[in-house]
Amino acid sequence: MILSMPLATNPYDIHIGKNLMAQLKMLIKKVYEGSKIYVITDQTVFNYHQEYLLKRLVDFEVEVVVVAPGETSKSFEVFEQVVDELIEKGIKRGHLILAFGGGVIGDLAGFVSATLYRGIDYIQIPTSLLAMVDASIGGKTGINTNKGKNLVGSFYQPKMVIIDTLLLRTLDKIEYQNGMAEVIKSAFIGDASLANQLLVSPVSEDEMIKRTIEVKRRYVLLDEFDRKERMYLNFGHTFGHAIERKSNYHIKHGFAVAVGMVIACDVGIKLGITSQETKEKLVALLKKYGLDKTVVNPNNYINEVFFDKKNINDILNMIFITDIGCPMISQIKKEDFNGCFN
Ligand SMILES: NC(=O)c1ccc[n+]([C@@H]2O[C@H](COP(=O)([O-])OP(=O)(O)OC[C@H]3O[C@@H](n4cnc5c(N)ncnc54)[C@H](O)[C@@H]3O)[C@@H](O)[C@H]2O)c1
Ligand SMILES: O=C(O)C(=O)C[C@@H](O)[C@H](O)[C@H](O)COP(=O)(O)O
Ligand SMILES: [Zn+2]
């Protein structure tokens, strides 16, 4: 009898370090002895790091598929382009896909891996801070549709996650701040001491990344398919996704989630769930990392948020924090927002 081991009992490999690319051949051979590897990446990442990656793959037969950078590549159109190009380049079920990029690449390549031939093994090699601390972990894959964010996708775990923090040296300041939003989100839902440390003193990048990943890993191992505890990782995303999409993705994911977290605190305060002090600490930390610049009128998004996947029969499962590190889910109806945003 073959025992299928869901993630919750069989956590996959997460490797974090510097210059892990030097061990890429050894790491890949741990999960894969085949002959052909298909790298999916975006043009910006490939321009910076193609030499760094490809010289570690000389022992393998490698093909590369490059898409345009940015959120617009998480689309049906680009999904079909990538699938067609992989087939034209001879991909087979036993081959291996490498997702080499930020969260957009991780989601797009993960969804291609989940669906092409009904599943091809893949490895996540995140290159943005946001992807290292969040997007590459937990197996959520998918694309956006013209109706909303991440509305088509699949839970499909990578065989391994290789986090080489040296790759961050080329990440620009805005993208680093973008990733800090998910660090702050994770600290506020699952590591109060990290949140308090970030408020008062610098935390080493490696420690910050490791502790942020640990928060996500903990919730994913509890609830891989996002029915309860994993939903805490969606703090700030109810409004965040709506803000991102209505801006045609000009407002980046992390910056939108930052606004979404403050909005969730305002609703939480109105409903007697969140303390004013908790909101003030969140706002102070967001400001410290330059994540307080996006200003929106939440009333403009109330209809949009009910397209969220957490909306069951017009009751919205929304994530709040009662205090730093203490998340909770409350069922919200549209009228609950009345008077929250004066
Ligand atoms: N699946 C999940 O669990 C999960 C979690 C969080 C976010 N996401 C998704 O991730 C996406 C956001 O991720 P992102 O911010 O990484 O977006 P992204 O992939 O678009 O990367 C941001 C920008 O940084 C560039 N970049 C990436 N790595 C670089 C590097 N090392 N040096 C220089 N430039 C680099 C990219 O080319 C891009 O222009 C959103 O679509 C979001 O929905 C998914
Ligand atoms: O992994 C999760 O679960 C998360 O909620 C992580 C989020 O940071 C991430 O943006 C995720 O893609 C949002 O999930 P969705 O189910 O709202 O699409
Ligand atoms: Zn997110």
Quick structural gist:
Residues 65-177 form the 3-dehydroquinate synthase N-terminal domain. The chain is α/β, with parallel strands linked by helices. The chain is 42% helix and 20% strand.
- How many angstroms does the end-to-end distance come to? 61 Å
Question: Might you state the CATH topology name of the largest domain?
Answer: Rossmann fold
Query: Percent of residues in beta strands?
Result: 15-25%
- How would you write the strand order of the largest sheet? 1-8-5-4-2-3
Overall body shape? globular
Give the total of domains.
2
Q: What is the CATH C-level name of the largest domain? A: Alpha Beta
Domain 3-dehydroquinate synthase N-terminal: 65-177
Domain 3-dehydroquinate synthase C-terminal: 179-311
Protein name: 3-dehydroquinate synthase
GO molecular function: 3-dehydroquinate synthase activity; metal ion binding; nucleotide binding
Can you characterise this structure?
Helix 6 runs parallel beside helix 10 (253-270). The protein has two domains: 2-170, Rossmann fold (3-Layer(aba) Sandwich), CATH 3.40.50; 193-337, Dehydroquinate synthase-like - alpha domain (Dehydroquinate synthase-like, alpha domain). The chain starts with 12 loop residues before the first strand and ends in a 10-residue tail after the last strand. It contains twelve helices and eleven strands. It is 42% helix and 20% strand. 44% of the residues are buried. With 342 residues, it is an alpha/beta fold. The structure holds nicotinamide-adenine-dinucleotide, ligand LNCXM5UN and zinc ion. It is an enzyme of class 4 (lyase).
